[in-house]
Amino acid sequence: MNRSSVDRDDFAKYLEQALDINRFRDYCPNGMQVEGRVGIETIVTGVTASLALIEAAIEVNADAILVHHGYFWRGEDARIVGPKQKRLKLLLTRDINLFAYHLPLDMHPELGNNAQLGRQLGLEPRGRFGEDGLGWLGMPKDPEVKTVGDLVRVVEREVGRVPLLIGDRERPLGSVGWCTGAAQNLLGDAIAAGATVYLSGEISEPTVHLARETGVAYLACGHHATERYGIQALGRHLAETYGLAHHFIDIANPV
User: Fold this and answer.
1) Residues 41-94: tens digit of each pLDDT
2) Quick check: 184 and 164 in contact, CB under 8 A?
């Protein structure tokens, strides 16, 4: 099948504008992190730019890899040694572009991780909370999802994970707050916004106590598991926009 090709720099510019990357104060550079070949026909999307993802992208002859978790995080060791050297060497020798979008992908109102997780779980958005409105607030569309236990079963079915639950399975659902990944620090904001249930990827030791003391049920569903949907949606959008071949590759991760 003949595929279209897009210029790398035009592709990067489109993503910069579509995801509004310059509005964010982030922990890493958003956009093109490793420059590869000029023409892009085949893209691979995945959650994290691991060595396994790069190797899988090579198998499908990818010209570009797009991820949520890329490289060059604030405070990390800047030396190109060990696993970082192996990853970068493989990208550079194979002339593969790497694009990474962290907070911009969490935040996008249609393609973002929170928007897509809410859609996956059948949640109707009704508000936002937290800095820059990162957290989402809503209600289940399905009237049969009435209790915390019902929502747990939806997560098991739609995300494929058994969430860690802090709280009462029999508690009736009120407003559901959610934010993907490591967003346990937004629990207080979710409570202030009126959430009676909060769903995220991770939970920390002090967050357990806050959930217990406030009576708000907390569902920890897995960092990787909750952040699979935005990058897939972005890949599909780009494939449709430019006529590219797109492969989402989910590297198994229990977290």
Assistant:
1) 999 999 999 999 999 999 999 999 999 999 999 999 999 999 999 999 999 999
2) no
CATH number of domain containing 148: 3.40.1390.30
Range of the domain at 93: 6-102
Question: Which 3 state secondary structure label does DSSP give 35?
Answer: coil
Q: For the segment 1-38, what is each residue's pLDDT rounded down to a tens digit? A: 567 999 999 999 999 999 999 999 899 999 999 999 99
The CA distance from 234 to 66, in Å, is 9
Task: Count the domains in the chain.
Answer: 2
| 3 state SS of 33 | strand
Rounded to an integer, what distance in angstroms lies between the CA atom of residue 61 and that of residue 87? 16
Can you give the pLDDT at residue 2? 61
Look at residue 13 and tell me if it is in a domain. Answer: yes
Q: What is the pTM of this model?
A: 0.96
Distance in angstroms (rounded) separating the CA atoms of residues 255 and 250: 13
Q: Does 121 lie in the same domain as 215?
A: yes
The DSSP string of the chain is -----EEHHHHHHHHHHHTTGGG---SS--EEEE---SEE-EEEEEEE--HHHHHHHHHTT-SEEEEEE-S--TTS--S--HHHHHHHHHHHHTT-EEEE-SHHHHH-TTTSHHHHHHHHTTEEEEEEESGGG-EEEEEESSTT--BHHHHHHHHHHHHS---EEES-TTSBP-EEEEE-SS-GGGHHHHHHTTEEEEEES---HHHHHHHHHHT-EEEE--HHHHTSHHHHHHHHHHHHHHT-EEEE-------
